[in-house]
Amino acid sequence: MSIPLTALTGFGVILLMGLVAYMTRIGGVLIMSRMKIGRRAERFIYAMSGSALVAIVVPLAVEGDLAARLALATTAVVMLTTKKTLVAIMAGIVMAAGWRAFF
Known about the structure:
By secondary structure, the chain is mainly alpha-helical. 84% of the residues lie in helices and 0% in strands. Helix 3 packs antiparallel against helix 4.
């Protein structure tokens, strides 16, 4: 299957992909708002979010450069001391950007 590439078809494909992504996200919210979640399912969902975070962070810590490792360490320290997620993320970003800008 081949679609002729013009500005209009390119825009249409991007719009369609965005619509499908949006419908996928909103569909999950609508379905889950109508379902009763038991205690076991709730614990599973919380465990999965933690494991997804670990799956993102560990490869960065192992294979990342010094700026990435410093950013992870900064984020962890700020999160443990302030208990504010957004502040910790901002501190990590500033650390990585600052390190890469000056070193």
